Amino acid sequence: MRGFAGERRWAWPALAGVLALGLTLRLWGVRQGLPYAYNADEADHFVPHAVEMFARGSLNPHYFANPPAFSYLLHYLFALSYGGGAGVERTFERHPAELYTLARIAAAVLGTAALWLLYATGARLFGRAVGLLAAALEAVAFLPVFYAHLALNDVPTLAPLTLSLLGTAGVLRKGRTRDYLLAGAGLGLACASKYTAGIVILPLAAAVAARYLDRDAAGAELLVRGVLFAAVAALVAFLLANPYALLDYRSFHGELIHQSTLSAEAQGKLGAPKQGGLLYYLWSLTWGLGWVPALAALGGALMVWREERRLGWLLVPAPLVFLAFMGLEGRYFGRWLLPIFPVLCLLAAFFALASSRALAEAIGRHAPRLFTRAPRSLSVRLQGGLIALFVLALCAQGIVYSIHSGLVLSRADTRNLTRAWMVAHIPVGAKIVVEPIAPDDWAREARPATAVAAPPGMAARYRWHKYPSFVSVIAPNGALEPGARKVVGIEDYERTLSPALIGRYEQKGYCWVVSGSTQSGRVLPDGVPLTPRGGAEVNPSNGHGLPLAIAYYRALARRADVVYHASPYASGEGPVAFSFDWTFDYYPLAYRRPGPEVTVYRLRGGRCGR
Hints:
By secondary structure, the protein is mainly alpha-helical. The protein has helices spanning about 5-25, 40-45, 45-55, 70-80, 85-95, 95-125, 130-140, 140-145, 160-175, 175-195, 200-215, 215-240, 245, 250-265, 275-305, 310-315, 315-325, 340-365, 375-410, 415-425, 500-510, 515-520, 545-560, 580-585, and strands spanning about 430-435, 465, 470, 485, 510-515, 560-565, 600-605.
């Protein structure tokens, strides 16, 4: 794909534009939801672990379900920004939004750096034009744009992963020592950031195999040395970014096995898809990357395999193996596809540019009259027009939905709107029930502790008494069990619901109930509103085997008044059927703001009727 005139002249300005666009899309709405981290993984993992290292006085994360490289990066970034551990802990306690914002910016910047590395990889394998288009595709694709807004490891991992691909491209094309070192170091850092990023070892192995087949006597020695350098660089980089994998090997190995077991389990989450991982991931590509780029990547795989078999071995097996492996796991989410996005973007870009050139040449051969006067000029113009059409087709879906994502995330979250209403209308010290749609800090006083005097017996800084939603006091048959308490996880919350709970709320004076569609949507039939309106009936047979939970929501709507309702949808749009992707990443254009559909109820019976 080399040979576009004046590549160097136009490539750098165009790359600057792509990087600027990618960074803008990733930073647009980066403070969404704050000061509350509503994404459960963001709230539980990297930022808190980075802060906890200061509190413990140790760099041992004591947590390896996710590798700690991104946590370490945030740890040192926080230390530099806030003058050490004391400043970080104080900021996290008083102004957690500052740390989350900084962490999200770090994720966005690393995601943008991955675009530059992808350009360099494409330029080395195919030429600057392919590298530029591949970077543009990843710059606007929905999944890498959306998840750059969260302090998670998915997007930051793309930087070392693509660094390894860049080194691998060098191994294939030139076989220099620094290429092996780059490929190995990137591989080690990628695995220390996200375990599944280890898929990039397959392209490296293919490049090494290609060098082996082309070797001579002198080349054999260089190849062996290069492989050793790559292996040592990978090991050293992994241990530098995850040192306690060796220093605390028992914990590391135990949690790694546990995490692998969890991933292999069948979907036990209420509302989770049941069609199988492979089909789910293929569907996810149609919106996470885009229909046209996904099909172009398939065409690119076939084309590159036919035109340059060595390059085919480098690029094609990795996505196929990754899809097969992840598709056989019991749990699946769209963002878990991100490790193969750089390869898919390269294949799609190669297909688009190669097809535009082939189509222009075919038109030139079959329509000679068009080129009798200035064949070269007209051919160049035709090819340029075809390239523009291909680029537009490849990027259109990503641009539309990524801009929509920025608009949505830049608006107030429905949970923030709901809390603001509660602060204005629900007295301090009132008893409330909040479904697990928000962290416990949601019930805290947003102002300094001295601003509102806590009622007797109430923890300092808590504005309201929050019902212990993660403690089950209801038997499976709905009967009350005084004194029977069982701690349940967030995924099992709906299993604890029963109409009997409402009577308990009224008896104990928990008069305000906050319900959200990210919970109720797991058991209510698709498309049924949270509060039945216009005579809508809830179908008890479509509640994932939880008729008591469905009966609970029906009783709540019947025995309470709706005093506030916040909708994330544009006027006349929604509701969107519950899913573990679209409900939380707001992909459908029906969304106008982030968050679930939230309803605040005021119970009428018992102590609540006085």
